Amino acid sequence: MLSDRYGRKWPLVFNLILVSVLELGAGFTQTFHQFLAVRSLFGIGMGGVWGLATATALENLPVEARGIASGILQEGYAIGYLIAAVINLWLVPEVSAGWRSLFWTASGISLFAAFVRVLLPESEVFLRAKNSDGNKEKTAAAKTKIFIRETNTMLKKHWMLCIYAVVLMTGFNFLSHGTQDLYPTYLTATKGFSSHSATVATIIGNCGAIAGGVFGGWLSQHIGRRLTMIIHVFVIAAFIPLWILPSTFGPLSAGAFFLQFGVQGAWGVIPIHLAEMSPPAFRATFPGLAYQLGNMASSASAQIEATGGEHLRTTIVQKGKSVNVPDYASVQGIFIGAVAAFVILMILIGPEHLGSHFEKHKTAFEEGQESEINDNDPHVATLKRDNSQRSSEVDEKKSEEQV
């Protein structure tokens, strides 16, 4: 909400610094309750990043580039996960600090991200709104009153859309967390792999996720957001057997690669899909809140799978002995199959606004937030000229490639 009211830049910088400080603090905790307290506070900073980042990135790009940009943006998640896995694999076992070094390294990365954001300018959309003739004369208090009034208007008009977005993101978060959170435990407990092999398999899976996310985002620009997501969910379903049935490292890691290709291929569309779906003036609040409420609802996915493993068990041979272990393979296969079906249903009943020019609408501190901006505003003309120039460059590049 701060981002939709005051601009994208400084709320995101603050969130990243807060994340950095709390990651650093997590590495110094001595008891579980201290760790839990720091991680609870960490959620505040983390929750404020995604909505701001997606709004900042996508509203400043030409429409033709937003699909692939959405995929690249979302796979920052997978790249971060991959970097964390590499640190866990190579750094953590080699230093006396152990697991604490993972948090300290992450703190430095988050602080670097904040530094980069400080160097970059405010979003063009907010610079236009701030410098328009009508808004220059308004006080900060007047803008805040307008913001509150427009927020109430948006909730009254779009409350069903808000509920739908939360339910959709609940399904998507169950899809990602259900395939990721318990995955290393599944490999070590059910398949008998070492922690090292489980981490390597996680890295391979994240490589598939990165490829899938970028591909899915690019494809959605050509065949639509919903169809792209549905295709990738079917990819997930097709590779569930390879993900759970083999007992050796090669096939299982291949299953992880292709399953995560499908998961993040669908996820790569989500940033732009939510941005196009959301009320135009609330492109940070609406997607960010829907994402995090869905995240909260799905946060028990690992516990659901772990509980299922307590009741559904199997026998494996370890060091020449038969051992009774949780059958996480069957549990995850059933769980993800059910979630995939639910996600497809939710995608089918939802809206799609492919190619929406949401950047042309007023911001939340301007009267009539669903109206398009005044074409006579000089800042609007500049914004349109920049977007037109970018679109021309894209079209020229396409023509050169065709030749």
Write a structural description:
With 403 residues, the chain is an all-alpha fold. 75% of the residues lie in helices and 3% in strands. It has a two-stranded antiparallel sheet. Helix 10 packs across helix 11. The termini are far apart. 43% of the residues are buried.
Explain the layout of strands and helices.
Blueprint: H1 2-6, H2 9-26, H3 32-47, H4 49-58, H5 66-90, H6 100-119, H7 124-131, H8 133-136, H9 140-180, H10 183-189, H11 195-223, H12 225-244, H13 249-267, H14 270-277, H15 285-297, H16 301-311, E1 313-318, E2 321-326, H17 328-349, H18 378-402
Antiparallel strand pairs: 1-2
Keywords: Membrane, Transmembrane, Transmembrane helix
Biased composition (Basic and acidic residues): 383-403
GO biological process, one term: plasma membrane lactate transport
DSSP summary, beta strand count? 2
User: How far apart are the first and last residues' alpha carbons, in Å?
Assistant: 47 Å
Helix and strand content put the structural class at mainly alpha
Alpha carbon gyration radius: 23 Å
User: So how many helices?
Assistant: 18
**Neighbour order of strands in the largest sheet:** 1-2
Q: In which range does the helix fraction lie?
A: over 70%
Most strands sheet = 2 strands, antiparallel
Instruction: State mean pLDDT (0 to 100 scale).
Output: 87
Pick out the low-confidence regions. Answer: none
Strand portion, in percent? Answer: under 5%
**Helix-strand string:** HHHHHHHHHHHHHHHHEEHH
- Overall 3D form: globular
Protein name: Major facilitator superfamily (MFS) profile domain-containing protein
Region (Disordered): 365-403
Transmembrane segments: 12-30, 36-58, 70-90, 102-120, 159-178, 198-220, 227-245, 329-350
GO cellular component, one term: plasma membrane
